[in-house]
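ok trying this again, last paste got cut off
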Amino acid sequence: MQFRDFLPVSTNTSVKESCYGALGALIGLLGTALLCRWGLGLEVHWLIAPMGASAVLLFAAPASPLAQPWSILVGNGVSALMGVLSASLVPDMAIASALAVMLAIAAMFLTRSLHPPGGAVALTAVIGGEGIRALGVGYVLLPVLLNSLLLLSLGLIYNRALGRRYPHGGKVAPNRHQTADPQPSARLATQDIDFALQKHEELLDISRQDLQELLQEAQLHALRGRVGTVRCQDVMSRDLVVTTPQALAMEAWHLLSHHQIKALPVVDEGERLVGIITLHDLMIDRAGHQPRGKETLEQQQVADLMTREVQTARRYQPLYDLVEAFSDGGLHHMPVVEGEQLVGIITQSDMVAALFTLALKPGLTSEEATPVSS
């Protein structure tokens, strides 16, 4: 143990967020107090002290698992019940106080509703004075649950108004294949996080999804440092197989089959990119979700089946910019353009080979990189 262990820990919180947290607590507690005291006509016990601690979490740390709605409502509720139970069964106030907090923590763990102010809620039931003790079980409903519900409602409105994700469940990227698997970029991170959390038995004040999101951002930042000097032109295929809008779909099919590729850029007379046609376009009717027949391919032109809105890369664009599109975006190929002219194409094979080469030679620069054909 060293002296610096007692120094404040950096929270990386901006001044703006700090002000938002303080202002939110003012609005939340004032609103709760006014609604209880004047709106409901309560003369006593219209606001209890532990709500101040709940407000700190709700407005200053809304992303914390300890500040989520279930934790606030259930955590405060079961803690109040444990406090009332201890106060009624144990005459000695010191013993009852310690017992109340112990039971509150146990109850919150059992209900997965750990909320630190719950300890104060339980303690208040014991040492809050004769007025609080006289409420008995009624203390759970009024003021505890009423205060908690009103504060939570105001916190929900306030946090949403600021654009915060609350309740905060972490961002879950949609799986484009509509399966339960996480996105490709998250799969290795998921396994690593699960392994680490299994070995770390202490409670961490961060959700699993937030931890995964931070790890992914750190990994992407590190990847940018390794591949930031490599450009699309360094890895793209240059000897391209293309087709035209006027070509028959069957001709495009034969080109794909002969060259063992999965997509053909579609260009006009000036070699300008106007679309792309893939095996999927030729095989599946997107409108009817039905397989296409041979007759269709022999009668229709490429222009009838191609995708016209094509996601492209620029010749000198960093390769890093394409990683997310190829992993989570589900792209298998991306044309590379200079102006409107088609100059190359990058496929998943090109991307995998380039990243593998960079992993073996982390110091590789764009001048040293060699094009990868596919």
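PB: full thing came through this time. The longest strand covers residues 341-347.
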